Amino acid sequence: MALATFKGGIHPPDKKELSKDKPISIVRPPKKVVIPLVQHIGAPCKLSVSIGQEVKKGDVIGASEGFVSAPVHASVSGKVVAIGEFPNAMGRMVISVVIENDGKEEWTTLKDNPDYMNLSPENLKEKIRDAGIVGMGGAAFPTHVKLSPPKEKPVDIVILNGAECEPYLTADYRLMIERPEEVVEGLKILMKVLGVSKGFIGIENNKPDAIEAMKKAVSKESNIQANIQIYPLEVKYPQGAEKMLIKAAAGREVPPRGLPMDVGVVVQNIGTAIAVYEAVRYGKPLIERIVTVTGEGIKNPKNLLVKIGTFVTDLIEECGGFTSEIAKVISGGPMMGFSLYSLDVPVTKGTSGILVLPEEGVVHAEDFGPCIRCGRCIDICPMGLMPSMLSVLSEKGFYEETKDYNLFDCFECGSCTYICPSRRPIVQLIRLAKSLVKP
Amino acid sequence: MAEIKKEHQLTVSVSPHVKSEETTSRIMWSVNLSLLPAALIGAYFFGPRAVFALTIAIITAVLCEHLYQRGMKSKITINDGSAFLTGLLVGLNLPPSVPFYIPVIGSFVAIVITKQLFGGLGFNVFNPAAAGRAFLLISFPKLMTIWKEPTAAFVQMDAKTTATPLGILKEEGIAKLMEVFGDKTNLYTELFMGHRAGSIGETSTLALLIGAAFLFYRGYISWHIPVSFMGTAAAMAWVFGGKGALFAGDPIIHLISGGMILGAFFMATDYVTCPSVKKGQLIFGAGCGFLTMLIRLKGGYPEGVMFAILIMNCFTPIIDRGFKTKVFGFKKPDSKETKK
Q: Which fold has domain A17-100+285-359?
């Protein structure tokens, strides 16, 4: 049987062998953490601690204001030593809380709910919101917002995104291998909140053990087994992009500029599902996450359980440091992640990986040639765009004209730039055009 | 703000951070390589004069590109293999015994006038090699139509002058062609192997198909243009190619003679001058096939591949505009909704 997939896409070397067999390990507790109060898409949080205050793990340090927002919690126990603007991983100055770790690892009082499946959907959603859960695949959109579709857009499928199509990253893979039952519990909660009976888990076919583990975990749930399906997906980038995943697993096409809920689907990340389970079952807020630290430039690639606010420097140290002269450090995967300008920046809720590349692995963009109109980018664009035209128009300054070529349907997956034989910085030119014209 | 230590001088750039191995020059040199069998067969059948013409054409093309770019103070890109390829194609499209200035002029027109004056690689409207050949054919009609018998012996210098199979077909008809080649099987075999009069690199269908297979294998060309080009041409040859009656023509002769194989696989598929959307490429190929046969059957020249490609090059921009891709998830609005 042909595997479910979408039209287009590329096959970059996946490089997952560097870290895929490393079980999740806990990073040494950092001496201090810097926790930004904006880690999500949406309104910033309101500071709720003051300098000198003692906090415990799980205490709210930034309360969410407004609906599209998520609260931020202390990830260590200790003393608030500074509050101010600190650079985040993207180089923006963000109000952050600095906590000195007292090493006691004391938790605030958490509310246990062994009987969580009998809670009302509203109640469950409230717990998810209070735990500060956001999409952990990288975009960090508040999860409870995704779980609140308007009445006129009925949702009937929840899809868990286990594709992890970015090269190098193995965080979701490890979670599916090590904690498949919790993934299933998380999915059950998400399905209950949305009142749907169909749950899909899409996993790329290069992770047969993860598919096996998830199937086994689902088969244990006799009452819900029929409703949850595991979808092996063709190994192809960007198989884990929301729209591509929905097309592959549910056979539905999200309309241009539409949202998954327009076709009755909500997509959540594997890590998010576990966070949801922990929040609902144990009342545990989102204060730590799995980060894959990998790349040819790192001595011992690892999958780490990291407290939010830990510096990238600490993770690098935990993994034995660099192998040689390093040239680039990326937060996230190599296709859509962003490069760091400094290693003294904190891990946030959306940090899925830290990828260290030596000079040999870095492509310098200054040396690009003209578009030779080979059409490769057109053939592989998962959105059915014409990246070649967009790049040429933007390069020559015809920004308005880029809209005739559906500029704003591009989600910057980077496939065109990867494939381009002239090494044109197509995504960069598209971003330039996006910043200069109105949709 | 955190201090950036010297040993942590990090490269910061926009995603994606990895790229495929594919480069323009790798593609161009691969296409050059794929034309090697055809060039070797040409050298084998037509001797030192053919090698001489090919060499002059390539050297002139590369030199012209170098001098032009130096004169314009732009980046010199002769190593990307595209000027070499243009020169090679100009050479392969020449009759074997042309004097030395013919390839010089051909490559000059191809590189300077057709390619660089329009902006260089990626910006030219016409296929440079085809334009170079068209210029030569119109300017030197006599020299460009002296064809030599293939001799199959590299040492034999003075081959007899003859006509190409298409020339015979045009002037004297299929009966004469049969007389020259004996029977149909022999005719097909000779045409397929390349043992016939013609341009240096166009004669051997076998050698060209080996090269084309390599390009398919590497994914450098797709089936769209060759199939629609040759399919249309074959259909027209079959329907209109016979003497006196419809549906009596011989499509095979038309496919494996003249510059059909070279044109359909190596020249019409030129990235820069053909449409980049696959659907548009089907139209482009069909147009090439149609025009080729129109010229071969009704026009003044026995061969029409090169003119057909050049004419269809003019349509490339409008075809590209007419066949934009469909955006993911886009549906034509329902007729009900449009009525509202």
A: Ubiquitin-like (UB roll) (3.10.20)
| Residues of A (135-194) whose Cβ lies below 8 Å from B | 167
Q: Do domains A114-282 and A367-436 have the same CATH topology?
A: no
> What does the pLDDT look like over B231-264, one tens digit per residue?
999 999 999 988 888 898 899 999 999 999 999 9
- What is the DSSP code (8-state) at residue B229? H
Domain ranges in chain A?
A: 17-100+285-359, 114-282, 367-436
CATH architecture of A367-436: Orthogonal Bundle (1.10)
* Residue B152 vs residue B242, higher pLDDT: B242
At A236, the pLDDT band (50, 70, 90 cuts) reads very high
**Contact by Cβ (8 Å): A10, A418:** yes
Mind giving me the DSSP string for A350-378? Answer: T--EEEEEEGGGPPPGGG--------HHH
Residue A59 has pLDDT above 90, yes or no: yes
Instruction: Take residue A10 and report the two structure tokens written for it.
Output: 């590329």
A383 vs B contacts (CB less than 8 Å): 327-328
Gap between the Cα atoms of A133 and A70, Å rounded: 7
B325–chain A Cβ distance below 8 A for any pair: yes
B82 vs B73: CA distance, rounded Å: 19
A317 close contact with B: CB closer than 8 A: no
Q: Rounded distance, CA A315 to CA A424, Å?
A: 33
- Give residue B2's pLDDT: 42
The CA distance from A216 to A225, in Å, is: 10
Which band of pLDDT confidence, cut at 50, 70 and 90, is reported for residue A4? confident
Q: Which domain holds residue B206?
A: 24-322
Residues 99-128 of A with CB under 8 A from B: none
Tell me if chain A has a CB within 8 Å of the CB of B16.
yes
CATH number of A114-282: 3.40.50.11540
Residue B1 has pLDDT above 50, yes or no: no
Angle, helix B82-92 to helix B48-71, in steps of 10 degrees: 140
Structural domains counted in chain B: 1
Residues of B in contact with A420 (CB under 8 A): 19
CATH number of the domain where residue B89 is located: 1.10.3430
B23 close contact with A: CB closer than 8 A: yes
- Tokens standing for residue A106: 């004391």
Using the CB atoms, write b or e for B157-183: b if 16+ within 10 Å.
eebeebbbbbbbbbeeebeebeeebee
CB proximity A407 to B under 8 Å: no
Our CA-based measurement puts residue B170 at a distance from the nearest CA of chain A, in whole angstroms, of 37
Is A47 exposed, middle or buried, given 0-12, 13-18 or 19+ CB atoms closer than 10 A? Answer: middle
Task: Summarize pLDDT for A267-283 with one digit per residue, the tens.
Answer: 999 999 999 999 999 99
